[in-house]
Design a protein that fits this description.
single chain; 239 residues; alpha/beta; four-stranded antiparallel β-sheet; 8 helices; 26% strand; binds adenosine-5'-diphosphate; ATP hydrolysis activity; translocase
């Protein structure tokens, strides 16, 4: 069974802009899916409907075979815990340590009076170290976030989502502000999490070349519509 399924999904923003138009497709568990398309094509809208950051107007999205449209309260929290998200801006607390930033991923999803006050258990701290090992930054535990390169900061953001133990990672233009060298370290990290931990990864990218290098499958959006859906071998620069 697919981990994510879109059935006739439409998203019209309250100002009338069409975000998504009649989108239907399935994402198998463990796939590395890249979404390409020009700015404004609907990539970000698509990603944000998966964790209900945006509400759809009609149609149905199912995750692990359960429709998510009507989730609220605890079921919505559990859905969002299952789905890690990273953004073009890394959204780190710049003046705090890498460890603090990674631990904040725990607070968001497992809030207790202790974690809310910044008191973390030994287990949480060990989990933070393991998460940083997964992104090759275990040596930066006590470095201030704003002393890291952009690529390192994005990997801290990935480590922060690993504190949720996510089944799915959504990455919205994660390398748009990075140079080619650090872009590779971020994409390699996502690839490793996909291959070694079986996390389903969905990445929005501008670059078809980058998409071809990493994707199992590429889907293309134009004006909110799914205009192609190809296994990687069939995608050419002309697309
Ligand atoms: P929804 O229909 O999902 O509730 P809204 O139409 O209420 O979304 O818009 C959410 C926010 O995004 C608003 O603050 C709005 O000003 C802002 N917004 C409006 N147009 C755009 C746009 N073209 N791109 C990004 N954000 C926008
Ligand atoms: P992409 O990620 O491919 O650049 P988006 O999903 O951000 O595309 O945007 C798709 C369309 O929806 C664009 O026309 C954009 O201006 C519009 N849009 C995005 N967010 C909002 C919003 N909150 N309110 C109104 N329109 C929006």
């Amino acid at each position: 069974a697919p981990i994510i399924s879109f059935k006739g999904v439409n998203k019209i923003y309250s100002n009338g802009t069409v975000g998504l138009k009649d989108i239907s497709f399935d994402i198998p568990r463990g796939q590395f899916l890249v979404v390409v398309g020009l700015s404004g094509a609907g990539k970000s809208t698509l990603l944000r409907t998966i964790n209900r950051m945006h509400e759809i107007t009609s149609g149905e999205i199912t995750i692990e075979e359960e429709p998510i449209n009507d989730y609220k309260g605890q079921s919505l929290r559990l859905l969002r815990r299952k789905i890690g998200m990273i953004f073009q801006g890394f959204n780190l607390i710049n003046r705090s340590s890498v460890e603090r930033n990674v631990l904040s991923g725990r607070v968001s999803y497992y809030p207790t009076w202790k974690t809310l006050c910044g008191l973390f258990s030994k287990a949480d701290r060990e989990m933070a170290v393991r998460s940083l090992q997964r992104v090759n930054l275990a040596d930066k535990l006590y470095t201030r976030a704003d002393e890291l390169s952009g690529g390192q900061q994005q990997r801290v953001a990935i480590a922060r989502t690993l504190m949720q133990d996510p089944k799915i990672i959504l990455a919205d233009e994660p390398v748009a502000s990075l140079d080619p060298l650090t872009t590779a370290t971020v994409m390699d990290t996502l690839q490793r999490l996909n291959r070694e931990d079986g996390i389903t990864v969905i990445v929005n990218l501008h670059s078809v070349a980058l998409a071809r290098k990493y994707a199992d499958r590429i889907i293309g959006l134009r004006a909110g519509q799914l205009v192609y859906d190809q296994p990687i071998a069939a995608v050419t620069e002309a697309d």
